[in-house]
Amino acid sequence: SGSCENNIKQDDVYVAYAKADVPLGYIFGYRQFNKGKIYNKNILILEALYVDKEFRKQGIGEILLKSFEDWAKNKYDDYVVEITYINANENAHKFYEKMGYLPVKSTLRK
């Protein structure tokens, strides 16, 4: 069995997942904007989600993402989670889609 450890500092969240004291992955996110006149919801940014290659496809990413979502539900009454990932990372796209996330905007860069 594994464990999730939360180290919450103000509006940031960090959740690490480990099994037998071996780090298997991590997640990091934070609140970017307060709910107010411009933003009708708290905007939470999922900055990083990583699972060690040896431990992928074992549900660890789901555990980490659900921990982040649980933190959000407990802390904010009205929020959206925004995730940015590299378009070439098809595994990330499939994972987030499976977890219920849908594309809402695109960023172009030169």
Helix run count: 2
Class per helix and strand makeup: alpha+beta
Low-confidence stretches: none
Please bin the fraction of helical residues: 10-25%
Distance between the termini: 45 Å
β content, as a range?
A: 35-45%
Largest sheet, in brief, is:
5 strands, mixed
**Alpha-carbon Rg, integer:** 15 Å
Order of helices and strands: EEEEHEH
- In which order are the strands of the major sheet placed? 1-2-3-4-5
Detailed description of the structure:
The protein is an alpha+beta fold. The protein is 23% helix and 35% strand. The chain contains 2 helices and 5 strands; from the N terminus they run E-E-E-E-H-E-H. A 5-stranded mixed β-sheet has the order 1-2-3-4-5, with helices on one face. The N and C termini lie far apart (45 Å). The model has no long low-confidence stretch (mean pLDDT 81).
Which key terms come to mind for this protein?
single chain, 110 residues, alpha+beta, 5-stranded mixed sheet, 2 helices, 5 strands, globular
What is this structure's SSE topology?
Elements: E1 3-6, E2 12-19, E3 22-33, E4 42-51, H1 60-75, E5 79-83, H2 90-98
Parallel strand pairs: 4-5
Antiparallel strand pairs: 1-2, 2-3, 3-4
